[in-house]
Amino acid sequence: MVVGAGGGDELKLLGVWDSPYVNRVQIVLNLKGLSYEYVEEDLMNKSDLLLGSNPVHKKVPVLIHNGKPIAESRVIVEYLDEAFAAGAGGSTGASVLPSDPYERAVARFWAAYVDDKVGSPWYTILFARERGEKVEAAARAISALETVEAGAFRDHSSEGKTTNAAAAPFFGGDSIGFVDVVLGSYLGWFRVIEKMIGVRIMDAARTPRLAAWAERFEAADAVRGVLPDDVDKVIDFLQACSCTRVGVLLSTSWIALFRLLCRAGKNVPSCFVYLGPNGILSL
User: Are residues 63 and 147 both part of a single domain?
Assistant: First the structure.
């Protein structure tokens, strides 16, 4: 599938439709006005192209630019910002990272903080077996967002575009920037988590400025149609993935009992099935 318009370079994005890490790359490609080919991957049956393009991690996203693969979402975003600076290579969009070295460092700090403190609990919420673990992880993500609201907007300087940094509509100032793209890529999943465990991650009562920012971000032309907005579809997708292969708990005694039950033709208790953060381990 070819997306976008403009630019003469050959760009191909390997991804999964509901991945926030893929979505952030799509948003930057849209911001830059770049045309690219999108290839949907089946993570249960990864393509030779994906495995060959990212042999270290074997995961999406991977951007292939004129035959050269780049992996890891934040690395890809920075690469696009450098390779397709405003007016270069067909790019029509502004830079995602600030031009000032200090401001770039601040943006990178907060982007890394978001992935570490919001992204890590997100995995736990999705894959932990106990509801208590999920709720505790959600609380960590909420606390991290409170820190972002208190610190990231305050630390932001919009390089003269807005006299009051705190009044800027985005972390990137008057336009979407690096931190906006990284945090914004999780917004669709916040809604999924709310339906899964009944906890609202981004709440206007706790983080009013972030809640208002989220509305502005999702209304942007480059973002519309990218983030997953069908919560039930995402949940169905997760359930389908969890049923694709049979998994077991990693205990030698439990594995032995599992095999014994299978050989005896007995029904296997549901407690043996476990979907881990890296997929299902099969016997």
Answer: no
